[in-house]
Design goal:
Layout (H helix, E strand, L loop, with lengths): L1 H24 L4 H4 L5 H15 L2 E2 L5 E2 L3 H30 L3 H24 L2 H26 L2 H72 L6 H28 L7 E4 H18 L2 E7 L4 E4 L1 H19 L3 E9 L4 E8 L6 H6 L14 H12 L3 E7 L3 E9 L3
Helix pairs in contact: 1-3, 1-7, 3-4, 4-5, 5-6, 6-7, 7-8, 8-12, 9-10, 10-12
């Protein structure tokens, strides 16, 4: 028995070593990890093939391995495609390693359906909740196996079953902690990069914006005075274009100043339902000019704690972007509702041009915009305001089909 446990411990060392190599040498975001060709999936296959080809033999009848570990991790962290691909490799490997293929396929078909059903639940929790969920799911295997052994009367085998299951569960929990720690480090790194960019923008705004605004105001004033003189049609057109471009530059400078300016206004309880309706009314004429229809369905009495003018600025900016993405003859759907977890979700959907995954990742970064004359500061400011209020923005889009902005804010009630 002790020799078998030692063999199991060698499997543990190999599995943890493989995960550590992945964590140290490979950098993959969560969305990349969900691809079947990802480095994470390759690591799962290495673990799966190794543990099935080198099972621990307790007796001629009973064999133990860790194949359940890569299957669970593939489903939970790699997604359904990676999970089913791992099961397919498991069945292929099972043809050469001895277990009865029909029994293996039956057991893991049931287990896969269970994993699919708890994936969304697993992702809702933080690390402790995730460990509890996956522990309860895994324990179904040794419990059912233990009942079978009790009925059979094989007591020594039950003792080893308990020992091996404890080792496998401890390994699974350790891997979950490693992966969650890696995810947290990636998030912190992205946060630091974003903060550095914001600091650069803030410093630039503080040092340049005020100096640039004064001469621009003077130039604009002289341009307006020139319009009172007798001018040719072309000269008048050139002056109008110059004034428009000066106003656009002024708007960009104001956005820089908004990013640089620390928020000093006290938080207040805001009637979010009213703010959403006001924002829609402000943009309604702009939408009509572009033959765009705005549909809205907003729950009554929604309240948040934050800054009224700022959240209205966020809504107007995103609705304006949606209108410009459609260009003409489209539809925008706006809805807001309070979820069971106390978070208010505001959805702004359009059926415009849409975006690629790479474009979505870059959205919100200073200086990046999908518009020809955009600076990217508008969405950067939106992210900045929503984050100050304890929320975040989720963007989903499909090229040539449309985009959905999901603004999530904590409820004030």
């Amino acid at each position: 028995m002790w020799e078998s446990i030692q063999s199991l411990c060698l499997h543990v060392v190999f599995i943890l070593f493989t995960i550590l190599i992945y964590q140290v040498f490979f950098y993959e975001r969560e969305e990349k990890r969900k691809r079947v060709r990802s480095k994470f999936f390759v690591c799962m296959l290495v673990i799966l093939v190794f543990t099935m080809s080198q099972p621990v033999l307790y007796s001629e009848v009973y064999k133990y391995d860790f194949k359940v570990v890569p299957i669970i991790l593939s489903f939970l962290y790699g997604g359904k495609r990676a999970g089913f691909a791992a099961v397919f490799v498991l069945l292929i490997t099972g043809l050469f390693t001895g277990p009865k293929l029909v029994i293996l396929a039956g057991n893991y078909t049931i287990f896969c359906l269970l994993l699919m059903s708890i994936t969304n639940l697993f992702n809702r929790y933080r690390i402790k909740g995730k460990v509890i969920v996956i522990s309860l799911v895994y324990l179904m295997i040794p419990i059912t196996r233990g009942i079978f052994l009790i009925v059979k009367g094989d007591i020594p085998q039950i003792i080893f079953e308990v020992s091996s299951s404890s080792i496998i569960l401890a390994t699974l929990i350790a891997i979950i902690y490693l992966i969650e720690n890696m995810n947290e480090q990636m998030e912190m790194k992205q946060e630091l990069i974003l903060r550095e960019k914001m600091d650069v923008v803030s410093q630039l705004a503080a040092s340049v914006a005020h100096e640039v605004r004064n001469p621009m105001t003077s130039v604009r004033g002289f341009m307006q005075l020139m319009q009172n003189e007798r001018l040719t049609e072309k000269q008048d057109m050139y002056i109008n274009i110059s004034i428009e471009e000066l106003d656009r530059a002024q708007g960009i400078i104001n956005q820089y100043l908004d990013l640089a300016k620390p928020q000093t206004n006290p938080h207040e309880t805001i009637d979010l339902t009213s703010v959403i309706h006001q924002s829609i009314n402000v943009m309604q004429s702009y939408a009509v000019l572009n033959s765009i229809h705005i549909q809205h369905e907003v729950e009554p009495s929604l309240e948040i704690v934050g800054f009224k003018l700022e959240i209205q600025q966020v809504l107007i900016n995103i609705i304006k972007n949606a209108i410009e993405a459609i260009k003409s003859e489209g539809e925008i759907r706006i809805s807001a509702a309070k979820q069971s977890n106390g978070i208010i979700s505001i959805l702004i959907e359009d059926n415009g041009a849409g975006m690629t995954e790479d474009q979505i990742k870059k959205l919100g970064s200073p200086y990046y915009s999908t518009k020809e004359k955009g600076t990217g500061l508008g969405l950067t400011l939106c992210h900045h305001i929503v984050k100050q209020m304890g929320g975040h923005i989720i963007i989903k889009s499909e090229l040539n089909k449309g985009t959905c902005f999901n603004i999530k804010l904590p409820s004030g009630t």
